[in-house]
Amino acid sequence: MENKKQVPEAAESGSGEPIGFKPLYAQVRERLMRRLVDGAWLPGMLLPSEMELARQLNVSQGTVRKALDSMTADNLLLRRQGRGTYVAEPEESRIMFQFFRLSPDEGSPNFPDSKVLSTGSASPTKTEKEALGLGDADEVIRIERIRSLSGQPILIETITLPSNRFPDFDHLTIIPNNVYRLYSERWGITIGSAEERLKAIAASARDAAKLGCENGEPLLLISRLARDLENRPVELRWSRCITREIHYAVNLR
Amino acid sequence: MENKKQVPEAAESGSGEPIGFKPLYAQVRERLMRRLVDGAWLPGMLLPSEMELARQLNVSQGTVRKALDSMTADNLLLRRQGRGTYVAEPEESRIMFQFFRLSPDEGSPNFPDSKVLSTGSASPTKTEKEALGLGDADEVIRIERIRSLSGQPILIETITLPSNRFPDFDHLTIIPNNVYRLYSERWGITIGSAEERLKAIAASARDAAKLGCENGEPLLLISRLARDLENRPVELRWSRCITREIHYAVNLR
DNA sequence: GAGTGGTCTAGACCACTTA
DNA sequence: AAGTGGTCTAGACCACTCA
């Protein structure tokens, strides 16, 4: 019956919106996102039921549902009929589908092993500074590793992270295969989205040696910029991939 | 009040569903899709209002909305508040965003020109037969063209179409830049989705000559299989692209 | 059987567009 | 002012899960 909650609560953050109209469910989503970002809701956790959230937030169950559905569409939540709503975990099965688009030409997709070649910190290059939004004084961590599918090396990748968001990174004894799970568990950083740019390049002598391919062989270069839940850039990754028996898959809908 | 429409109408097509439960809005979507597929609703056309459709189909307005929203999410419809719901058109602006993922490294995306090098019909290769689901007696049309961005040739592509779905193709005097619009207007075939596979390859002598690049230069190979609204494969396309100043963009959410 | 998400309805009001 | 899609609510029932 009472329905004037849109404008009154719209000014909760003093941001410079051009024209103020934010639907209630969008406001609800923002309040729920805050719980995720602040770590009040951790990966794998069971959320309160729709009815309970509706009571807490003083809106109808349908409005809560719209907010939850939109977060589910962004792979942030997982809903299961009869069970409840859970915070999504950066598991292999999910990561594979969402962030790993390489499949063998024949046969079913598989997650590659990885072997770290080197780690260390350094000053960022101009490209890294721009992509990660760093200042002159900031440092970065660089990881280089080689990834194999059923024994065959298929790609070599360089991961760049801003040091200030990953304190004590050098204390790590091992770097696991699934680094997004590591970011989440160790530093509470959840990767929510990423942009990738693909090019074809010729293998450098260095990469060719590590990958065991011809010098100058065509490689697929994948540059990824991954962002956290607040859309801040977190990770820059350059993968150079042998695509003789493998391809990068994209669905256009 | 009355709400038992799910099971009764579920058996409208005698397909072999494992367990019969299809929500009402999914049934509504199927009925609306039929109008699109059969050409009762043509690109650009204004649909009846939600209320009118609800009356026609004897369901509530909210259920019609769910079906329309899902079709809008698939880029089949376009909804504008205050105006109405329209059938989506294969316009450059939409196509560009949905089906053309190549952007210059610097500057804003632009749609390339194209110049046809050759057309003709032939017997399909094994790959073409498998991808397009063709039999031994079927023929295909092949188009080869070169595409340029601001004067610079950037890719050469081979398009393969099943002859039986594109009758009198050889009567065409010109082949326009936007072929999906042509498919729609001339043969009533709407491209609804596509899958792409990307690899890095070395330029063949033939491609290098046409593109004006080095022999063996790394090219991005994009193999696309495009499907119509009923998910039948319609077009197979092999693009070989120079990615010196251009990249293929993907968003992972 | 109790609790959860999923569907469906009915009705009200809001924001936007066009006449 | 009238018509459209967009939001919000309230309440009912259905399908699924688990103790």
User: Which stretches of chain A are poorly predicted, pLDDT < 50 over at least 5 residues?
Assistant: 1-18
Total helical elements of chain A:
8
CATH topology heading of the largest domain in chain A? Chorismate lyase
CATH-defined superfamily of the largest domain in chain A: Chorismate lyase-like
Number of domains of chain A: 2
How far is the N terminus from the C terminus of chain A? 39 Å
Structural class of chain A: alpha+beta
Domain HTH gntR-type (chains A, B): 22-90
Pfam family, one (chains A, B): GntR
Region (Disordered) (chains A, B): 106-129
Biased composition (Polar residues) (chains A, B): 116-125
Written description of the protein model:
Chains A, B: Residues 116-125 have a biased composition (Polar residues). Chains A, B: This is UTRA domain-containing protein. Chains A, B: Residues 106-129 are annotated as: Disordered. Chains A, B: Keywords: DNA-binding, Transcription, Transcription regulation. Chains A, B: It holds the Pfam family GntR. 2 copies of one chain form a homodimer. In chain A, helix 2 crosses helix 4 and helix 3 (50-57) packs across helix 4. Chain A has helices at residues 6-10, 24-37, 50-57, 61-73, 92-99, 126-132, 179-187, 205-211, and strands at residues 77-80, 84-87, 102-104, 113-122, 140-149, 152-162, 191-202, 218-228, 233-241, 246-252. The first copy, chain A, contains 8 helices and 10 strands. The first copy, chain A, is globular and about 65 Å long. With 253 residues, chain A is an alpha+beta fold. Mean pLDDT of chain A is 91; it is low at 1-18. Chain A folds into 2 domains: 6-87, Orthogonal Bundle (Arc Repressor Mutant, subunit A), CATH 1.10.10.10; 92-248, Chorismate lyase (3-Layer(aba) Sandwich). Chain A is 28% helix and 32% strand. In chain A, strands 4-5-6-9-8-7 form a 6-stranded antiparallel beta sheet. In chain A, strands 1-2 form a two-stranded antiparallel ribbon. A two-stranded antiparallel sheet of chain A has the order 3-10.
